[in-house]
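Recall the central idea of this unit: under ordinary conditions, the amino acid sequence of a chain determines the structure it adopts. In this exercise we apply that idea directly, starting from the sequence alone.
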Amino acid sequence: MKKIKNKRAMLWIMLPTSFALTAGALIACSNTNADQTLVDDIAKNVKSLTNIKAREKYLTLEDLQTALNDLKTNQGIIDVLDNTKSSSTDYTRNVVSANHSLEITPTIATVDNIKEVVRVSYTLDYNGAKAETELMVHLFTWQPPSTEVKGDEQVINWFKTVKQSYEVADGLKTLLPAQVSEKVSLNDAVTLGALDTLVKTTPIPEGFTTKWAQIAGKENDNDGTTELKLVLTKENKFYGANGLAIDSANDAVGVDVKLTGLETNKNLATTWYTNLKSETEVTLDTLKILLPSESVGDSVLLIQDLSTNLPYKFTVSVTPLAENAFDNVAGTLKVKVSLKKLDQFYLPDGTTVETVDTAGKEVTLKGFSTQVTLAKQWYTNSVKDESIASKSIASSTTDNVTDEMLTALYNPPSRIKTSTVKVTKVTETDSTTTQGSLKVKVTLLLGEQLFNEEGELVTEEQNAGKTVTLSGFSTQVPTVNSGTPGTNETPSDES
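Accordingly, the structure predicted from this sequence is:
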């Protein structure tokens, strides 16, 4: 094996670990193929060194060319390289190891003005194994090109025109911040169009469109503000303020745009209370057929009836007043209606409290069924001319049937609580009263008051009740035996 005078053997640190052979391995290696592989790999790695600089004293590429031309040793190359940075160190590491070195043929240096570099060509020689290589050397003042990827300048310049905050226009003023976020997430075209109008005072670059996204936790429904993230999109790529094309909208560095002047909880509450009239008609058919007293225990229906046109995400609480809440005659119910959102109850002026006791507005609900209606229906459906032939009192005559027996024929309407029925005979008869028939007056009472046939409450008995004819009573007249067979007897009047 050839003895090498230079004590430092050449080896490249950029070789894979598998090729970082020790000096002992080199000495022991006598295989020509292994030597050639080693030289080839070193030559390849010399070509891969792209950031090598010369010493500061070489001011031009021509000066550097002269210094690097016709060098016959690696040390000659090393002496030209910058020793204040990593250039000479990088080269030395890659060509020197232990007590062995690679020989080189005289160098040929040429200037590459396009790449601003001197190209140094030479042949490496080790134990007869040769490989051509080339080292590129830059001036001391040369700086490596930036590895930073530049974004689209049109996009960057457009984002510079986007303000940090915008006062919303009419298309958005009626929306709460939370509503804006919801509509953005649903890609509502009207909302997105209104947002675009705010920021497109400078037209966006051709071919691009906007992409808005909500920022969690930024909606403030109390002060009417929110923040949204804005990016641009084109051909399935997303662009932020840095102009870089990103595959995901979430990863794009967009800009946060603050919106002010949106709707507020307070304003919505005051407007709703203002529109809620002190006297309000119920709208549900299921409520209209109930007496006010019957609806008191059904808060679900009352809430459902008053939940129309509620502000966004608000609910309503309906509570009958403690005293004189219902009037079954007038068909009205007095309640307190309170708006609620989350854990706050609203007063009519839009301020909030934590309990329902001091919140809300007193409202009289109208349009319920009334006792007048029920009483009139009762007179119509239950009190009418009819035969009692199938009833137990049919065995009685019109003379001996009592008012109590007649009253037992009628049940008062169950929905008019505490109501009773009174039935009396009408002594006057007319030509329409047939044998076995009886005219009676049926009266529905509520305490000391009486219902007339139209369902109205009156105080005078003569103005109340309904007169009808009951037929089917017994007409059999009792006879007296005179002791003279065959003698007819005349009927007796019983009173």
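The chain has four domains: 17-137, 153-263, 274-369, 372-471.
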